[in-house]
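Researcher: I'm preparing a figure for a lab meeting and need a structural model of a single chain. I don't have an experimental structure, so a prediction will have to do for now. The sequence is pasted below. Please return the structure as C-alpha cells so I can convert it later.
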Amino acid sequence: MAKGAPCSRRRWAVAAALCVLALLPASAPAAFHERSIIVPSRSIGPFYLGMSEADVAAARRVALCHVQASFAAGKVSRLETNCGGAYRTEERIQVGEDPGRMLAAYGRPERRMASDFAGVRGEWLYYMTAGIAFRVVYGATAESALIQAIAIFRGTAPQQVRRTPPVVPPTAPADIGQ
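Model: Understood. Here is the structure written out cell by cell.
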C-alpha cells in the first residue's frame, strides 16, 4: 500500500459526505423552523388553535416537546408549553430565559394574574390583543425572573403574521416582578 493511501481515502470520504449533504433538500431548516415556532393567536410548533383531538394526537407524534392543549366545543382553544429551547417566537422568546426580550417585543402586559405555586411567586402576563401569555416566576430578586411557560389563544386583534427581527431586551420596568 502506498504511503499516501490513508490520506487519499480520507479525502474521498470527506468528498462523498459533502456530496450527500449537497443532495439534501434545502427546505430542511425551514421544516425545523415550522416545527419549533410559536405564532401568537395561531400555533405552537405543529399544534394549531382550532385542531381536533385527533389532530392533536397526530401532532404529538412529530412534536419536539409536549404541548398542553385545552379544548372548547371539541376544538383547541388554548395551547401551552413549558419546554425551554424546543419552541420560540419570531422574536426568539422562549421558556427559560429572563423576561427582558418579551417586554421589549410586547411591552407592558394588558393583564396580569397571580400564579404562585409551591412557595414560588409567579404570574401570567397576558397580551390579549396579540393572543399570547407568559408565565413568569420570580426568585429573590427581580433579576432572577424567568419565563416558565408560554401560552397562545385567540387574540382580540385581527391576525397579522409578520416576520420581525430579534429585539434587544431592555431592562424590565420597575413594576414587573413586584
